[in-house]
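Pair request: fold both.
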Amino acid sequence: MRAQFVLSEIGVGLRRNLTMTFAVVVSVALSLALFGGSLLMRDQVSTMKGYWYDKVNVSIFLCNKGDAEQDPKCAKGAVTNEQKQQILTDLKKMPVVDTVQHETADQAYKHYKEQFGDSPLSSSLTPDQMQESYRIKLKDPEKYQVVATAFSGRDGVQSVEDQKGVLDNLFELLNGMNWAALAVMALMLVVALMLIVNTVRVSAFSRRRETGIMRLVGASSFYIQMPFILEAAVAGLIGGGLACGFLLLGRYFIIDHGLQLSEKLNLINFIGWDAVLAKLPLVLAIGLLMPALAAFFALRKYLKV
């Protein structure tokens, strides 16, 4: 009988404050969708880092005849065979180095023609103008500085370049977007909490006569508060369910269908459905507990029992 009464009171409260309940549902749904999206963005960035950092190479570019005339770093002339052999020997001794691949000037010219054959400069380049290089794969991409320190400024070395620097700029941009989404989520969350508190206050005020009668007949404080707490929890749960729907639809239409980013950007290793599904229970739990706790603390102040 008590459970039936509580459920009936929940229905009454939701109907009486339908507009404010709708606002709570929308606010919770948007804030939790942004929260879930931020978590997925963080997973996506981590996945991309693991995928691309594993493919990062450190390149040691060697001086050629043209560099000897123009670049102060190559003032001692083009790299000699002895210098190349010494560089290779030192690289193989370094514990941070996984593999070393030597790219000759002819190979560099061939790769350039394959990638930039339509460029106006390609017709004026010759193989002897291209630089020889060592392409080094590190066991830990974060240890680039070890190689740079060991070989920068060495005779025959024009420069040491790390592809990781280019990727870091991309990941910094993605992390910045993620923090911006979290900031908007926090703002929406504050709005949702304020709406929940106001909704509970209005609901408690509109039913002050009923709660007064319940106090007179000896109802406990928890029993009087329960309908209001469950109203907020139901509204939050609906909002959490909508947020889960937004996340699923976003993954389906943005990556798999609609925009089809998984096909258009096939160089990006997108997160799978398992990552999305793993976040849904957390979103639902927050959608249920956050409004319930907000209502509980609001009632302690605004509902005199």
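--- second member of the pair ---
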Amino acid sequence: MTANVAGYLLQMLAGRWLGVAGFSEFASLLAVQLLCAVPALAMQNVVAREVVRGAGLRAVRAMQWRCAALVAAVAVVLIPVVATVLHVGVPAAAAALGAAPALVILSGEQGILQGANQFRALATVLALAGTARVAPALIALALGGGSAGALLAAAGGLVAAAFLAGRIVRSATASDSADLLLDGRTATVEPREQAIGVLPVLRAVQVQAALMALSSADLIVVRIVLDDADASRYSLGTIATKIAFWLPQAVGVVLYPRMAQPTHSARAIRDALSVLSLIGVVAVIGAALAAPLAPLFAGQDYAPIQGMLWIFALHGAMLAVLQGALLSAIAVERTGLAMVTWVGLAVEVALMLAFADSIGSLIGIAVCVAAVTTTIVALVVLRAARNDDGPGR
């Protein structure tokens, strides 16, 4: 919650300080940074799964550094591409992409704590990461640093957070006689120290990439199909999407280790999707009730979108359910299911480029595609969970 609130505060204040003329650039670069976080999210899920299955710290950290180096190389190549496509400066693009390697290392440490059921320490790291990313960015914006300065400051904060996370992990696991012992294991059980390949991470990456691309594509397309003022208003509306999307993140974090255990997987998947759906309903109702307050926080320039905030929240709520379903696919290594999401992404972008000419039509397309994609993926996951239960269970 601390990390999420910090992120929303950053976007809210950036929307006010940068104005409708400048916020769309910042929001689009944040969307790029979110896409850069895909390898990090995949890293956390794979690390947590491998820790549940008995991997040791040395093997896990070796994989983290290999993946971080690979991500850094790709980020360097993408800097001129992002600058050209989004019509932003090279420094701003470099600042957005520069956080990617640090995010990989940070998420790997989070995965160790998650897989070990060290949720108190994990909560500390998550709150630390959110604060370390947002506080320097807000200071940079307040000092007039613009998008590039804020994103560069955020990247520096994430580097510091990754270093501190490593210290927290070592402290949380220092009392164990082996490198890392899961709850229920005894000190006589040795962790697996054989090398963990990058391939499992790459398979998880394409699942997370599909989800993040589907959740962020509208923020990139909006700069193509709408003018700067409406693009900024739409970008601010997506704060409601992000709240509904990330608010129930703890559900997946807590249940994921159970999803990775064959004896608990089916029940954990059903529990996760049920809770995520319920939280989504609450988020949509909350957005509808809180809509009149939006212009008070963001400014009167954003008043035209207040009546649509519940639709933005509905988009995020459906994506949250989709995220839960895809997390279960990673936990049981059924990553081919991501193909449904990739198809949904292609359909969404094509429809937006062809038909979207207003804020309403853009979010309407996003909601419809998310609804269809989520329904298909959830049905497949639930059917597989029933089969895993076996006859008579």
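Observation on the second member. Residues 20 and 337 are 39 Å apart (CA to CA).
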